[in-house]
Amino acid sequence: MLRLLYKPSLLLALVVALGASSCAKDENGDRLLFSVEDDKALGEKVAEQTDSTYRAKGQLLERTDSKNARAYQLLDGVVNKVLNSGQLTYRNEFPWDVKIIKDDNIQNAFATPGGHIYVFTGLIKFLDDESQLAGVLGHEIAHADRRHTSKSLQQQYGISVLLSLVLGENPNQLAVVAANLGQLKFSRDYEREADAYSVVYLNPTQYACDGAAGFFIKAQENSSAQPEFLSTHPDPGSRVTDIQAKAAELKCTGRTVSNANFDELKRIL
């Protein structure tokens, strides 16, 4: 591909020269300077760095370790229902893997560009049921599938820096980006869209499609121990209302599912 033949500074000049006429915009009016292939390449770099960081701390639950096989079987069961809902734009383009970080004190989850999802054990143990887990994971999947993560990184760091990461030329900056990804703040529009798509993704599944609202309600009730997730996903009150309204619109509320697998997942973590 052409982008692999140029230094980031030269490629940036080409992007700037062509951007006004050739770069597509999404429905929010955001200009897309990154291609889907760039999303995947950046996501792979960031995921490798994230894995390395948490592996060094002994906190990454490795999929290759047989001791973690059951936990991943249970978690994948939830993730795959969301991914296979038929509602994702990049279901077949992105790798879509999920990894568990062992830290019961952190109630958070985040997504890299290109569909690498990370979830902390503290978040899983905080939740009450499998629909809540599916809702939160659906929200993070939406950030990747709607390309919010790469667009927000572009706004924060600039296209030149991100292209240098794709080309492997800025390892120190890569470490910074990976370390801060869990604290990446999205715009209000991106948060609303991720909430809405979480409902859309869960609608064809067995889950209560307003599962994410259940998480936000629980978070509001635990004001003395606000999940870290809320530091980057604020304003739970209005979001509960919007999620429930979307679920009512799609007529997919009131579902109940067995929590046997979810309870087992929490026990073995």
TrEMBL record:
Residues 77-245 form the Peptidase M48 domain. Keywords: Hydrolase, Metal-binding, Metalloprotease, Protease, Signal, Zinc. Its cofactor is Zn(2+). Gene3D superfamilies: Metalloproteases ('zincins'), catalytic domain (3.30.2010.10). InterPro entries: Mito/Outer_Membr_Metalloprot (IPR051156), Peptidase_M48 (IPR001915). Belongs to the peptidase M48 family. Binds 1 zinc ion per subunit. This is M48 family metalloprotease. GO terms for cellular component: membrane. Residues 1-24 form the signal peptide. One of its GO terms (molecular function) is metal ion binding. It comes from the Bacteria. GO terms for biological process: proteolysis involved in protein catabolic process.
